[in-house]
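Problem 12. The chain below contains 60 residues. Write out its predicted structure in token notation.
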Amino acid sequence: MGAHYWIEDEDLNRVEIRPGERIAPYVGDRVRVTGRFSYAPDAGRVIEADAVAVEESREQ
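Solution.
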């Protein structure tokens, strides 16, 4: 089984991003992901990513 990647918000709500090789180069970056979202009680929340883009840095 390969690596798993997810995005999360400040409240630690996580969404897995698939395929992993599409998101792997962006580990540690703030990104915008577009794709198909799905949810299943046994699998959780998943986005099948069509595109990943680095977000501009924003002051908080």
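Discussion. The first strand starts at residue 5 and ends at 8. Students who got a different answer should revisit the alignment rule from Section 12.3.
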